[in-house]
Specification:
Elements (H helix, E strand, L loop, with lengths): L12 H4 L10 H8 L7 E2 L11 H12 L11 H11 L6 E4 L2 H12 L5 E5 L4 H9 L3 E5 L8 H7 L4 E7 L11 H10 L5 E5 L14 H7 L3 E6 L12 E5 L1 H9 L8 H12 L1 H24 L4 E2 L5 E5 L3 H9 L3 E2 L1 E2 L8 E5 L3 H14 L1
Parallel strand pairs: 1-11, 3-4, 3-5, 5-6, 6-7
Antiparallel strand pairs: 2-8, 7-8, 9-10, 10-13, 12-13
Helix pairs in contact: 3-11, 4-11, 5-6, 5-10
The structure holds pyridoxal-5'-phosphate.
Length: 369
């Protein structure tokens, strides 16, 4: 028995006006919509690892499945944090494990922003930054990009006394642009200390070793820094939802206060711990990606298509009518990411696949264009 009328408006106005995140189409939904076998679908829309996951991770999952437990998972993800602590030579007390690193981005917004706060980010940055910001009723300040990359000078100028948080992706998604470590360090030193910086390194493992950051060194210098990484991309665990942050104990403690207690499940924790130990798998993923990315570049050159050189496992390529080309590829059971929601309607973001997959994509792209 409700006393509310049909016209009652629920929730707060800032929630009512939040945009929805539009993810890359899943193979299941494409199969259903177009009448394809799910196995025939080539998914190149969400930057997952085409090699799948490490055998170590599969083994860990199989073992858990064989001995399922009805207990809650370890809220502290102790084993995974221990493994991460050893890998990066940082204290476990500065690590949070999240339900994907997307959750880390959200925890940062919840802990460090709110009504009246401004949050600085770059144009063409990952959509989750503005969504996480608006979800806590803070204001995104989007700084125009420069040649598809971050304009760091302009980002510094955008920082004001109301700015409490800044998101920076390196390499960036969806453009694939990359800033070298010297440039990043110079930038971090100049961001006012009252601002918490989230350095999103979701694609770090795809960089050659010399280009990768040293989290320990960065964190020693910056108590206002959070480094976010994920198991979704090079480690191939996107389905399990697991990522992590490395930060000072002070910031970690605050984010832990807004973290749901059982945010990551036992399977994800076990698979991630096992995956972390299999460096060969990550190296192989990186090498295949680098070679195949070059392959795509040459093909795009031959087709006279403009593209943005990428440091990730995806390439942004200009095809003209992005939505239309994406639709035609869908009709050929190939899923790529149209970029209109990123103000790039002429572009597609295409995840680098295995040799045969890239061949299939390029053939289809030639037919469509
Ligand atoms: C994929 C991605 C993430 C993390 O995704 P999760 O699956 O939530 O870990 C974070 N940032 C960027 C820029 C990404 O592309």
């Amino acid at each position: 028995m409700s006393t509310l009328t049909d016209t009652h408006v629920y929730g707060q106005s800032y929630v009512q006006s939040l945009p929805l995140y539009i993810p890359g189409k899943s193979a299941v939904s494409v199969a259903r919509e177009h009448g394809f076998e799910e196995s025939s679908i080539l998914k190149m829309a969400s930057n997952e690892n085409p090699l799948g996951m490490s055998e170590h991770a599969k083994h860990a999952l199989a073992e858990l499945a064989a001995n399922p437990s009805s207990s809650y998972p370890d809220s502290e993800a102790t084993a995974l944090k221990q493994a991460l602590s050893e890998r990066f030579h940082v204290d476990s007390a500065g690590i949070i494990v999240g339900n994907g690193s997307s959750e880390i981005l959200e925890l940062a917004a919840r802990a460090f922003a709110g009504n009246g706060c401004s949050v600085v980010m770059s144009q063409y940055a990952f959509a989750s930054y503005s969504l996480a910001t608006m979800a806590v009723n803070a204001t995104p300040v989007v700084v125009p990009a420069q040649s598809f990359g971050h304009d760091l000078e302009a980002m510094l100028e955008a920082c004001t006394s109301t700015t409490t948080l800044l998101y920076l992706a390196n390499p960036n998604n969806p453009t694939g642009t990359f800033l070298d470590q010297k440039t990043i360090r110079h930038f971090l030193r100049r961001v006012p200390e009252h601002i918490v910086i989230v350095l999103d390194e979701a694609y770090a493992e795809y960089l050659c070793e010399e280009d990768q950051s040293c989290p320990r060194a960065l964190l020693n210098e910056h108590h206002n820094l959070i480094i976010a990484r994920t198991f979704s991309k090079a480690y191939g665990l996107a389905a399990l939802r697991i990522g992590y942050s490395l930060a000072s104990k002070v910031l970690t403690d605050l984010m832990n206060r807004v973290r749901p207690a059982f945010n990551t499940n036992s399977f994800a924790q076990a698979a991630a711990t096992a995956a972390l130990a299999d460096e060969d798998f990550v190296t192989l993923s990186r090498e295949i990606n680098a070679a195949e990315r070059e392959h795509l570049y040459s093909a795009f050159d031959a087709m006279k298509l403009q593209y943005v050189p990428s440091s990730g496992n995806f390439v942004l390529v200009r095809v003209g009518q992005g939505a239309q080309v994406a639709q035609r590829l869908l009709e050929r059971a190939i899923v790529v990411r149209p970029m209109a929601s990123y103000e790039l309607p002429e572009w597609l973001r295409i995840t680098v696949g295995l040799p045969e997959q890239n061949k299939r994509l390029l053939t289809a792209l030639q037919e469509v264009l």
